[in-house]
Write a structure and sequence with these properties.
Layout (H helix, E strand, L loop, with lengths): L24 H23 L7 H13 L10 H14 L19 H13 L10 H19 L7 E5 L2 H17 L6 E5 L4 H9 L6 E3 L8 H10 L7 E6 L11 H11 L2 E5 L24 E5 L11 E5 L13 H4 L1 H5 L18 H36 L3 E3 L7 E6 L4 H14 L5 E5 L2 E7 L7 H12 L5
Parallel strand pairs: 2-3, 2-4, 4-5, 5-6
Antiparallel strand pairs: 1-7, 6-7, 8-9, 9-11, 10-11
Amino acid sequence: MLVAPPEYPEDPMSSPPPLAGGPQGPQALRPLLETTLNALAEGATERDGPLPRGGPAAVEARVREAAGDLLPAQGTGADDALRTLVAAVAAGAADPANPLCAAHLHCPPLALATAADLAASALNPSMDSWDQAPAASALEALLTATLAAEVHGGPPDAADALITTGGTESNQLALLLAREQAAAHGHHPHVLVGANAHHSLRRAAWLLGLPEPVTVPAPAGVLDPAALDEALTELPGPPGHFLVTATAGTTDAGLIDPLTDIADLCATHGARLHVDAAYGAGLLFSDVHKTKLHGLDRADSVALDLHKLGWQPAAAGVLTVRAAADLDVLGHRADYLNADDDTEAGLPDLLGRSLRTTRRPDALKIAVTLKALGRTGLGALVDQVCDRAREFADLVAAHPGFELYDKPAISTVLFRPADADDDHIAYVRRTLLTDGTAVLGRAQLDGRRWLKATLLNPHTGPEDLAALLTLVEGTSPR
């Protein structure tokens, strides 16, 4: 039997607004969702492209106009607030579902995953104690075990994983685990990062009070095993004193370090290995491309982001560890959340599953997606975006007016107008942004600036790739 949706009172003092949860929650949400969906469509129509026109000043003016007084003495009501603000944000959004929005590792989320994320918001579990998230914590445990086994293989329960906000948090946790392992033997680790490594690794070392990481050369954009061997040989310290970080999917070009060679060196020198595969780990779902990650399973820890090659709403990060016991150091006690007697009585202890206390049940949207699409469905999405990147690279290479950096390793293509200088490259990108016609990134490699297209939209077609190249070709100083 359907329950009539509650009315939003004109006078909020007369009765409180309806809630998203409880028996009446779904009915309360239905009219609000209709308003929200209409506002999203209205905003997309107004924007009419991958990005709003006019640059920062125009966007700010549009938002200010819609927002008005954000804390009025008397509220405007739910329908008006939703309609005006959602429409304004949608009109001023960078839309990753538009094929010409291709600057960053910023994927268009699946409708399926977004619907699951709505359920997570409505139920609002807090993943810091079992009594706030009974089913969500059980689902998270199943999901993390599944993803850990996917990355590391091995016997059941040997590996484990944590849900994070993304690669930055995962990298920070990886360095923390290495620090604590080294501290157990009475020393601090030397961290070695490639010159191609993500900025978050050096920042994590600073945050954790570790020495400045040793930078290993990365000619041609990938870490050099010979240089790594030399650095490990010259650094003082016993086995277990080193943490080597490798990258599977660099931010600039999507390149993958030689993981097997690096894992061999780590085994020889007794070094711990962390792989930042926030971008590249999604290749594991593809029978065509997963061989590019050979050696990943030998890493002690791996960062992967399913809000990249997983098509999830942010955030959907994961840190996997090959040895589940590595996570024991994160154990923490707060009597109101995980009292000893509750744990002994069988209530799961969640506080050691993150450095955060309150956190969303991001496992739900991921689990729904994995179950709905399966390995085959996810692999097909990966193959599609990698195929589009290869097609775009071929298009660039065949065009006499453009220069291609290299064939794509995953789904990132670097290119530039032939004979253009770096200032022109920057001009082209900013002009397209200001006009709202295309969103391209930028990268600095081999001493030159490149335009970057990161193709994560499986609905992108050949005509979109041709249109993107035409837009760049037609942009010249005014």
